[in-house]
Amino acid sequence: MDATTTTESDSSLLIIIALTLTLIAVVGFIAKRFFLSSPETQRREDTVVFTGLSDTGKTSLFLQLRDGNQSTETHTSIVENVFDHKINQKMVKIVDSPGANRVRNNWMKYVNRAKAFVFVVDAANYDSRNSAEFLYDVLSHPSIFRAKVPLCIVCNKSDIVTAHPSSSIKTQMEREITQLSKTRRAFPQQTEGNEVVNLCPQGQPFVFGKNEQPVTFVEASGKEGNIQEIDSWLSKLFQ
Q: Where does Mg(2+) bind (predicted)?
């Protein structure tokens, strides 16, 4: 074999090696982008989103967290409110997502980013059916369901004599979600990626926490400034 042939062979080998390394790098880059962009692998931000039906007192609780005193009378929000809240030496973004019907789905833009959600219900004037339907949408959203995003259900206005205790609301919600699951199995609603999440597999009754998603029930009163249980939950979440 002469020197020319050897040089050509070496050049061909170097080209093959270079092409192979380039292909590996491209495949690795694509795989990394795909993997990191999935809801399960994204690093969730230090953000907590308050959501729920209108007139449940979300904004009152939000203002109580922000201002640290009893809040004045509020009205149904049509825009979100945001502030940075210091929890255990960490700055956490608190979002008050509006409850008005036409902007109620604002919470969905946080499903791949928020570290946790707070779902507020009016314990004194509890709308079991509509609350359960809204909560079902939150719990069954694929990004929240797969990532097992923590959820705190706040039974607000607990200072009112006629308010339902959190244990009663929990039982009513489980019953309503079980019934809703039967309806949605018959008429499935597709979401992102055409994925349908069934909260009651094999037709079993719905039970909070059964799918390993952390769900905590607390009682509060934005009007009276009683948010200790919310503070405690947030402190544990960001400890």
A: 59, 77
Sequence ranges of the binding site: 52-59, 77, 99, 156-159
Query: Are 133 and 20 part of one and the same domain?
Result: no
How is 12-44 classified by DSSP, letter by letter?
Answer: HHHHHHHHHHHHHHHHHHHHHHHHHHSTTTSPP
In a domain, 42, yes or no: no
3 and 56 assigned to the same domain? no
Average pLDDT, the chain: 84
* Domain span at 17: 1-37
Specify whether the CB–CB gap between 180 and 132 falls below 8 A.
yes
164 lies in the same domain as 193: yes
Q: Are 71 and 116 in contact (CB under 8 A)?
A: no
pLDDT in tens, 169-182: 999 999 999 999 98
Per-residue DSSP letter, 201: G
User: Are 72 and 30 members of one domain?
Assistant: no
27 and 128 in a single domain? The answer is no
pTM, to two decimals: 0.78
Amino acid at 133: E
| Under 8 Å between Cβ of 27 and 73 | no
Annotated binding site for GTP: 52-59, 99, 156-159
Do 2 and 63 have their domain in common?
A: no
Q: Which residues pair with 26 in a beta bridge?
A: none
Partners of 94 in the β-ladder: 48, 83
- Residue pair 165/218 in contact (Cβ under 8 Å)? The answer is no
Q: Which residue, 155, 198, 152, 149, is CA-closest to 178?
A: 198
Task: List binding-site positions for Mg(2+).
Answer: 59, 77
The total domain count for the chain is 2
